[in-house]
């Protein structure tokens, strides 16, 4: 039961009942187990329902630190404001940077959080914190957002990967590689660094038949050893080789050439656009978490040229992605996040750049579980500090978890030590949640 | 805060230090370690009426010992000789041979280095660090654990022979909180990090003073132009979660406080003198002279004092036990406090006392562990209810470490003809093989408790072309060697002996021979498949 998360919307209540009754006839005894979904998936109609209802998340990771001033928290006219104007969004009174006209028009599904104060202006430390929702602790290796969602939203024996991460740029890549931490390698990321198709996805120099027969021989030899040896580690070994061929069979999910030309044109020819399209294909097939890394926003010099080039792309791709998800009925169950390791200083330096700044910056949440068309928190006139509704990393993560129907206070156990998903005492931002 | 300290001390004295007062007499100290181990482990089995698994067979034992002592699987020649030997002392002799081999030092250095590199990214390239080189040199001289501890916390950066020992501090000096937590978990077996923000919710032993007290020993340690330095002054202040900001006592984990000089504000002259000492060294690009009074030195001294050293001794004994049994006498390894009892309290006390009395000689402990009957049990449970892990009634299945895995894969997939010849020559080749396996090792994560194999690992082995070439193709590899054996059943047996270090069972021989038979049009590919299937079996992936 624990891993079945329904949207809770009226439309889906029907599906939920449908699901329950189908399952009742299929023998509800298995329902209590965590593996329910795997068994339920054998029934085509249930599988379809679940695919629609399963929650998932796409993280647009603006690596290097995009400027909040040139995106979601503009300060035109202020000494710190820079050259760009602000424009009205579809929500009266909410204005964003003029470089984002498309997002301004389709603001109805998005909530901007303008009051992040995360106190870590270091690329490495900031990245780790914003991927994990907490500061690190030595000797306790925390899982990141993708690993937690893979575990909470994914299926144990899934034949699709459950944590996919695109990050083609070399800048900043190693600041926050996918980290399953204490959840273990089962929830590790499938990293795409250089090719749109994951590494080792294709057979090399062996026929499909031999590839399968060889794996069966492996299973036969391995199975004899496994008898009489109860161990989760051995189980994970067997499962890894069992899942392997299923995942290979899903190579097409990464292949955007299978999309109609019209769709590909909508996302545009940029790498970021293509990877967001691949992300959409993946979540549509049931992958619970995809990160698309877009680098490198670290504009210590020429901040405005950098943003003039990069923000319109973000605007176009993000708006296209939200439209596409909506048209497919997936936006209700898909949370799209923009986040980075930090924002940028209101102060403009002598190189016309903005530097690292973690005291008052922005993130956006769109779609699943989010009160769209809204803004939470406020920075002061110059953008130097949070004036209202300060949010730290833990609170942002609690909000993300709740939007996805996950109890943010749930404990994992590391040995006997309980480790809650977010630091004790953290509450989600109710105003942001639908 | 203060009121709790006497309570804490009493608790600790009552639990951790119990062996000092000998309330329940321990077995005599002069007993061989392996006998003491079996005495205590068997006593608990008997008391709870648990029957242990039978001993593992010889092929399993030589594989287990070779992996644990020298970090690789045995060669086919080693296995064959061991299985053929009828010498009743063959196990003890094998242990002596392996522990005398240079590979023993290298493997122990790798293992300790992994413990000292407490985070994953740093571990990945750790085989080539100066710290590991220091460990190799130290362990070659059989340097004791207390001396290594001293070298790591008080490295002499002017001494070339100590090169690399400073890395433990250097990589942590910019984050004193992390340094404090790492020292407490690695060397003392306790994690005081919870007490950083609040008194520990469940463990009455750990108050905020324990974290900040331990931190005080490191708070004066700084990076001075690329060299480690320690100030003459400085005190740790913190805001307890109840009450106003306070100065932390300089306090060890047992509650012992140190009246150190330099806790008051320094005078102008004193400040100036310190400034001069540090800036002169910085300009000269040299390690600065030590402070008049080193708090770090005081920590080392205190941690090794009678009445204080139990944390230090128990922590390493528990860690070595965990490495060889897959589970510590106390679990987890960083929770060795009064409210988390060991499975075998007297045994832990006995081993810690033995370690102290024999000059912190880690070799001695390791030899004792691997010679015990408890270590030599089978890992398969044939009965209906598997006993709880804490009984050590059977061997745990332990995932191979990255280096064990990589070296063993290279060894298992080669034509071992190249390993015949004089022992010294073979040893040289094995060392070269280890070096060549470092790249492969980076693919694998360092296993922790609850280790899982990732699907990426399966896909790496199944589909990576370069790896396929490296392990399976070419004249020096096992598949080519198998082709020279015309009899398919014998070929199957040969493959098993090379990769799984044991003869093939009848049904395996048949299955493999049938697989080969069906692919007689592509015999070399078929041999590659067979070796692949053995290499990727759970039996290979784990030490069992």
Uncertain spans of chain A: 1-42
| Tally of individual helices of chain A | 12
Strand order of the largest sheet of chain B: 1-2
Unreliable stretches of chain B (pLDDT < 50, length at least 5) are 1-23
Termini separation of chain B comes to 48 Å
Please state the second-level CATH architecture of the largest domain in chain A: 3-Layer(aba) Sandwich
Largest sheet of chain A: 8 strands, mixed
Q: Could you give the count of β-strands of chain B?
A: 6
Mean pLDDT of chain A: 88
Q: Kindly state the number of beta strands of chain A.
A: 16
Adjacency order of strands in the biggest sheet of chain A: 6-5-7-1-8-11-4-12
- Structural class of chain B comes to mainly alpha
Helix and strand content put the structural class of chain A at alpha/beta
The fold-level CATH name of the largest domain in chain A is Alkaline Phosphatase, subunit A
The CATH superfamily name of the largest domain in chain A is Alkaline Phosphatase, subunit A
Q: What's the alpha carbon Rg of chain A, rounded to whole Å?
A: 22 Å
Q: Could you provide a short overview of the structure?
A:
Helices cover 35% and strands 16% of the residues of chain A. Chain A is α/β, with parallel strands linked by helices and 434 residues long. In chain A, helix 10 packs parallel to helix 11 (303-327).
Mind explaining what this structure looks like?
The complex is a heterodimer of chains A (434) and B (544). The longest helix of chain A has 25 residues, at 303-327. In chain A, the strands form five sheets. Chain A has an eight-stranded mixed sheet with strand order 6-5-7-1-8-11-4-12, with helices on both faces. In chain A, strands 2-3 form a two-stranded antiparallel ribbon. In chain A, strands 9-10 form a two-stranded antiparallel ribbon. The two termini of chain A are 23 Å apart. Chain A is of the alpha/beta class and 434 residues long. In chain A, strand 15 and strand 16 form a beta hairpin. Chain A is built from twelve helices and 16 strands. Mean pLDDT of chain A is 88; it is low at 1-42. Chain A is globular. Chain A has helices at residues 10-27, 36-40, 44-53, 101-105, 123-132, 145-153, 208-226, 232-249, 261-267, 271-284, 303-327, 393-403; strands spanning 56-63, 86-88, 95-97, 110-116, 163-166, 190-192, 289-295, 334-339, 343-344, 356-357, 361-367, 374-376, 378-379, 386-388, 411-414, 417-420. Chain A has two domains: 55-196 and 255-432, Alkaline Phosphatase, subunit A (3-Layer(aba) Sandwich), CATH 3.40.720; 204-246. Chain B is an all-alpha fold and 544 residues long. Chain B folds into three domains: 4-105 and 313-325 and 343-391, no CATH class; 115-303, no CATH class; 399-543, no CATH class. Chain B is built from 28 helices and six strands. Chain B has helices at 4-15, 18-21, 33-47, 58-70, 76-84, 90-100, 102-116, 120-124, 130-140, 145-153, 167-170, 176-188, 208-216, 268-284, 295-303, 310-325, 345-357, 362-371, 402-412, 423-436, 438-441, 455-463, 465-472, 478-483, 488-499, 506-518, 523-535, 538-541; strands at residues 221-224, 227-230, 237-238, 246-247, 398-399, 542-543. A two-stranded antiparallel sheet of chain B has the order 1-2. In chain B, strand 1 and strand 2 (227-230) form a beta hairpin. Chain B is globular, with a radius of gyration of 26 Å. The model of chain B is unreliable at 1-23 (pLDDT under 50). Chains A and B meet through helix 7 and helix 8 of A and helix 12, helix 22, helix 26, helix 27 and helix 28 of B.
